[in-house]
Every structure is written in structure tokens, then in C-alpha cells.
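USER: Please consider what follows.
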Amino acid sequence: MSVKLAPGLLEALETLALQAAPHEACAMLMGAPDHVVGHVPSPNVTEGDPARHFEIDPALLLRLHREAREGGPAIVGVWHSHPGGRPEPSDEDRARSVEPSWVWLITAVQGGRCETRCWRASEHQPGDLVEVRLAGNATK
């Protein structure tokens, strides 16, 4: 299985990651489960250390759910960065991956360079994130 990103989306997300470093950046992903067509950046509202944790603004998340119910694009996942880390889910990421089939894009930022990998939340096992291929996309 693979996930396709709209043209320019990967570059936009990686730019957000570079701009936010050394803090984690985050956004909601919109579209269909196998084709992410857009993103909605969120301020990182974590009450913890923003260099190691992220939290999507709850007001933004509620607004996006309402807009989806009214015919807008569906929320299909979440993106965040790992400044100075790896593009792999942390234990906290796994614990928070409770939405079945959501896409989790994670961008690692190291020395001004980015690497993004894609994960999908299990339909049957909360906390299980399985890596999936990004179709037709390249990283910086």
C-alpha cells in the first residue's frame, strides 16, 4: 500500500519543519486515505517541551471536523516534525494513534535537511503504526 501526496505538499511540510526547528511543527492532513491533497498547519499548543512534543490546536481540529461534516475535505491524518530526531513514530506518537487508518507523516530535520516517512494507523490495533510507501514523492 502507498500514499500519494498532492504536488508541492511534501515541500510545503518540510519548509514548515525547517522554519519551526528546533520546535516540532504540526498540521492536519486532508483528502482521502490514499491521496493527501492538502494540509492545515496548526500552532503547536503543547504544554510540554515543544522541541520534543506537539499538540494540534483543539479549536482547529473541531473546526476541521465541522467543515468535513458540511462537505469540506476529510481529515485523513496528521503531520509533525522531529527536529534532531528520526522520521519514525515515538512511543508517544504510537500512543496517540487512535484514529483507524489515519496517515501519519513524520519529517525529521537534521542539519538543515529533511527526511519524511509515512505511517498508517492500524484499523484494528490502536497504537500500531505501519510504514507505508510515499508514492511518487521525493524529499529534500
Notes: The first helix runs from residue 9 to 20.
